[in-house]
Amino acid sequence: MPSEFRFIVFTPHEAAQALVKFCQKSGRKLPIGTVVGADPVGGVAGEAPPTGLLRLLPDSGVEIKVKFEPQEVVGALLLFALDRKIPMPRDSEKVLESIRNRFALRIGYYPLEGGAAGKPETAKAPGK
């Protein structure tokens, strides 16, 4: 059975919304200020996943950048996608990447022999 891949690419505004909501749900405190956007740092395909920077502009006028680990960004983007009813296969591999300076989730679905879902580490090699 063929494998399936797709990418969900988030605008800086969508990523910022996702990170703010993630902080609200997890109890993480953010500095007071206007949310400007969110940017990935690193994470080009084949590298380590990107970290995230949430950019805020307080009344002082000096931009503040709040850092997020890749796992936090993935959690935030998944919550964002689920809230907007974007289909997300439960048994799929989800990899955080940076595409054109935007956060992207690469969704991989690897069926096992017999049609059941699997991830790369559990999928059977072709011809075996």
Automatic annotation (TrEMBL):
Q: Which domain of life is it from?
A: Bacteria
**Designated name of the protein:** Uncharacterized protein
Organism of this sequence: Thalassobaculum litoreum DSM 18839
